[in-house]
């Protein structure tokens, strides 16, 4: 006797709605999970977990489903809502502003910023910070992080300026292969029409942003907000005087940081120092 499909609850959350729409369109098209898996190149078990809302949909699945079912972007729209549910409420306004930003500037003191992390680096980082979490939870966090990177690939992507403390390059996240891939991915980004990456070496010493992480989002109306992030929380700063003071500190770091060409050489040297 065939097992009865689990009853879905589409009104619980956008993630549940995504799963319910997946089943509705799949069954409407007369497709089994196995046949759909062959079309979208995801495993049957993964699609099943998405359908019953056990896991967050991967970033590219919405587009694949819209193409498979001819749904004119419906899955993409539901996914945009669902991916924000992964983040605590305190981060959601920050993410909404990030999505609207025309310029993103960030100082990263300890780890490579989320917008330029590789998938394996992000996975190792989340696993290190959540040793008791299930594999499903880790993958949900990874997918949510990767989904944020989509804004850098859009037609109106923001200009990205990063100042990376040397510590963020030296700190081992994952194994040597993970670090090698992450550092390699950074090198083409150091000086492009879409942004710039600079390294602040240890030799600079103390500065106003020591020990933290700070990002600035410049919006279409030229207003700027700042996001001050610590280990497990973040504060959105919108007072112009406060934001301006932190921006001056960031501007100083850019002035003291290595040029893009020297940054590329520096990252290459760190990369070459990794054991084979």
From TrEMBL:
Q: Which InterPro entries match?
A: Cro/C1-type_HTH (IPR001387), DUF5753 (IPR043917), Lambda_DNA-bd_dom_sf (IPR010982)
Domain (HTH cro/C1-type): give its ranges. Answer: 22-74
What SUPFAM superfamilies does its record include? lambda repressor-like DNA-binding domains (SSF47413)
Q: Its domain of life?
A: Bacteria
For this entry, the protein name equals Helix-turn-helix domain-containing protein
């Amino acid at each position: 006797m065939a097992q009865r499909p689990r009853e879905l609850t589409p009104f619980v959350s956008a993630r549940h709605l995504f799963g319910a729409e997946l089943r509705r369109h799949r069954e409407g098209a007369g497709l089994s999970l196995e046949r759909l898996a062959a079309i979208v190149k995801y495993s049957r078990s993964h699609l099943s977990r998405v359908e019953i809302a056990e896991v967050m949909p991967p970033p590219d699945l919405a587009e694949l489903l819209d193409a498979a079912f001819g749904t004119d972007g419906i899955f993409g729209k539901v996914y945009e809502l669902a991916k924000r549910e992964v983040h605590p409420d305190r981060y959601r306004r920050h993410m909404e502003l990030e999505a609207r930003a025309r310029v993103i500037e960030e100082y990263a003191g300890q780890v490579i910023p989320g917008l330029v992390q590789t998938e394996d680096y992000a996975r190792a980082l989340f696993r290190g910070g959540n040793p008791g979490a299930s594999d499903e939870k880790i993958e949900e966090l990874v997918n949510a992080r990767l989904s944020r990177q989509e804004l850098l690939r859009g037609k109106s992507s923001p200009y990205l300026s990063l100042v990376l403390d040397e510590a963020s390059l030296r700190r081992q996240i994952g194994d040597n292969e993970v670090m090698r891939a992450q550092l390699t991915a950074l090198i083409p980004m150091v000086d492009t029409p879409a942004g710039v990456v600079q390294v602040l070496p240890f030799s600079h010493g103390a500065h106003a942003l020591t020990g933290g992480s700070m990002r600035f989002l410049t919006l279409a109306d030229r207003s700027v907000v700042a996001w001050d992030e610590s280990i497990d929380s973040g504060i959105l700063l919108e007072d112009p005087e406060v934001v301006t003071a932190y921006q001056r500190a960031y501007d100083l770091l850019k002035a003291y940081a290595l040029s893009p060409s020297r940054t590329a050489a520096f990252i290459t040297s760190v990369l070459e120092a990794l054991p084979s």
